[in-house]
């Protein structure tokens, strides 16, 4: 019996030969005239199948496409997969993955992403642990729509599955590359693999990536949005018998970056006050790529992990086990007023030290697929500890700033109320006051059990039935210390209503009720059963169609930001227990579980020179977990229902020898079916019936690649790519006329492969210098001002690689 170690049968590996044949031939410098499409193997269903036969909406990006397109990390994948949007916010650690308009998880460690990221079958619970430079790959699969049946609670919107190259048991090979690019970027990568004994192989990979920033801090003469990161990855593959395999992976990534620069979209009335107290900002210029900061924002991330994958072939069943332990240490702070005025303390500037330890264990049994029934059963265990130690304090100019925007009201109110309440002069907005300590923890224990079967009940007909039961328990604790004197005063007791209402606008940091307490236990326990029902029909050997329904689940998410507030129904009980603090307003501690469902029909076809896939779907999420920046913290709330109807289409075509045309498009029609209490442009509002921001109606990716022979010594290619996304409002709480986005980007590359193992790739991204906003928000403590994150400007470089085997 052939080995099916590590969930990828040798028979499937033989099928992979055509898929990687072109890349291997070019790397060896052989002439490779290509006019037929290769077969691609995927493991989207945790079982090796060809891309065209798997009845799932999945996009596959090969290692060859990634290298030719100049894609450096997962964030760049959105230029190759139209259904995927990746939005980086104030740091590399705060990034959102969105598929078909659904996704969240940035800026709040209590929220797990709705799009699960898996690397070699191991779940990466936070984006900060998944954004280092990509290692040596086989491919990346993007599964669209709910995938909770096989992937559990972490995939209510979709999955990004990264599959790295396994060690080679037969021969030695490797490569070394150097990339030099604009902004003084230097990337060095190296990998080597080969046998140690007849049944033991190894691989080693390391990379270093350094780049100067493209955003200038005029105040300090420094550059922001730089890169400074390295990673390593070591693997051992041991096959003691033809039935058994072990794969041990040890990896680590580190980054220490000044990120990210913010542009001013609207220089409101507060801008003049900033300048009056000696600060400055570059106003009303979204794409100036420069600003004034009294200190630079910094993000430091160290993440590492070890995983052991074990596979054993019984006569008709394969056992697979994946055990993993990961750590993530994340430190970040930033000048969140984004001016050179000292409004926030440089030592307490939105400081956040986050530590996350995660252990996962998956077990599954998979039939060999012979006969009419192919089945899989399994279980997944997840446990995680999150610890956050943060701080936020006013700078030494905030009091002057407060006086400036209030016409001297800060001094006046202190003179009036200070003697009455016993406050010393200078207490209001004193330097360093605010939240000197913000401590929070979250413990998460999750168990999932699942089963799925494919029943070939008639010629060319297959029925798939799958079910998953997931149970999630979370225990959360918040211990915040607030010494902001002004924000703790119940002004309505001492001032006339009109004056009190005006003054309350400056109570930026009201006290927080910590929990667990006598009323709130800080615990949640959720469970759900999700399912998949799908019918597939092989119309011909080259075409199949499918129709089905799948559901997804994501457990309660907790708000660990300083905007955490008790539910309105809990305030009377808190008051009775003597726990109510001044100026306590109702809000949310957590968002209830979200449940998704998709109805989908699809078609897949592959012929000798053309393949095309189409999916038509109607997808909705009940109680979608919305996390919107409110100006000082994050408003976590459930949207009653968010839905989207859409069509996805992709095509690969060889019209003539060596010319490949690829096209992919996604059309979406999203809607908030129900969303009361949303954070809109004018504050809390009802967005029911409105179009959610940030989701384009049409997005496309078009690429043309031509392979050619350069004399007798080299083969080459030219690739041109166009990325389009139509205009959309960027976020719900910033007006569209202030922050809209339209993408119209051109990327290109030129490569040569020489017979002696050398390669060169001249690449450029955003060559037409397209400008758009990744995100936007109301400026912190600057009423009627707005800020945003501009996209990366044009980048280009040359990669030289030497490969040996």
Describe the protein.
The longest helix is centred in the N-terminal third of the chain and has 18 residues, at 10-27. This protein has 805 residues and is mainly beta. The protein starts with 9 loop residues before the first helix and ends with a strand. The model is unreliable at 1-5 and 7-33 (pLDDT under 50). The strands form eight sheets. It has a 22-stranded antiparallel β-barrel. Helix content is 9%, strand content 52%. Strand 31 (634-656) and strand 32 form a beta hairpin. It is globular and about 85 Å long. It has eight helices and 41 strands.
Number of strands: 41
Report the sheet with the most strands, covering strand number, pairing sense and barrel closure. 22 strands, antiparallel, barrel
Helix fraction, binned, reads: under 10%
Low-confidence regions: 1-5, 7-33
Distance between the termini: 29 Å
Strand content: over 45%
Topology (SSEs and partners):
Elements: H1 10-27, E1 41-42, E2 49-50, E3 58-62, H2 63-69, E4 84-88, E5 95-99, E6 115-119, E7 122-124, E8 137-144, H3 148-151, E9 158-164, E10 173-181, E11 185-195, E12 200-211, E13 215-217, E14 222-224, E15 227-241, E16 244-257, E17 263-266, H4 269-276, E18 290-291, E19 298-313, E20 317-333, E21 351-367, E22 373-393, H5 398-405, H6 409-421, E23 434-458, E24 461-481, H7 497-504, E25 523-538, E26 543-554, E27 557-558, H8 571-576, E28 590-591, E29 594-606, E30 610-629, E31 634-656, E32 659-674, E33 678-680, E34 683-685, E35 698-710, E36 714-729, E37 740-754, E38 758-765, E39 773-778, E40 786-790, E41 795-804
Parallel strand pairs: 6-9, 13-18
Antiparallel strand pairs: 1-2, 3-8, 4-5, 6-7, 8-9, 10-11, 10-41, 11-12, 12-15, 13-14, 15-16, 16-19, 17-40, 19-20, 20-21, 21-22, 22-23, 23-24, 24-25, 25-26, 26-29, 27-28, 29-30, 30-31, 31-32, 32-35, 33-34, 35-36, 36-37, 37-38, 38-41, 39-40
